[in-house]
Amino acid sequence: MAVRTSNTSGWKIKDIMMVVLIGMIFGVMFYVLKISHNAFASITKPLISFLSLHSITLTVGASQVSQQVMTAATIGLWVMAGPVSALIIKKPGSALLGELLAAIVKMAIGSTWGTTDLIWGLVQGAGSELGFALAGYKKPLVGLWFSTITSTVLSFGYNYFYAAYDKIPVNFTLSLLIIWFVSILFFAGILVFVIYFFLKRARLVK
């Protein structure tokens, strides 16, 4: 007797093609955003000089403060590929695969981060995937909001050790955590929901 599988379990060729397409689109977008990110960092050098008078910058360093605040404020942009993939494909592993493929494309184009992109792709993808898994993949919108929390926990937790947050003041670390979550909530939560809403309204996705 044949066993019927849930529509959230088995992958089809069209699902694979779709996640590859999403990964390619976001990979190119990530690469362009990285160039803009670097340009913005150069423009804000005068602000860094001004911040050097602040007590936190005297402890941590103005350049480090600026870099970490910018990373926290823009982290949500780099997490978008996962939840978009999960909402459109609605299959286990789609968030992780979408984010990882985007990282691979970004690295292949010529990212200066190299293999670090792959590590971040895995961390961010796993964070998104966990959120949808907690919702059982049956309630994608619930999974989306869960993913904003799980993505924050995993990605910030990784960066805590990667950027040695244990060596900076606790109040600054907590401030970064708040900015980090708000960024993911906005870009990888609200903005992704808006994208999905219009795609669904246009009947481009189910």
TrEMBL record:
Keywords: Membrane, Transmembrane, Transmembrane helix. The chain crosses the membrane at residues 16-33, 69-89, 96-113, 144-165, 177-199. It holds the Pfam family ABC_cobalt. Coiled coil: none annotated. The keyword Iron does not apply. This is Transporter. It comes from Oenococcus sicerae.
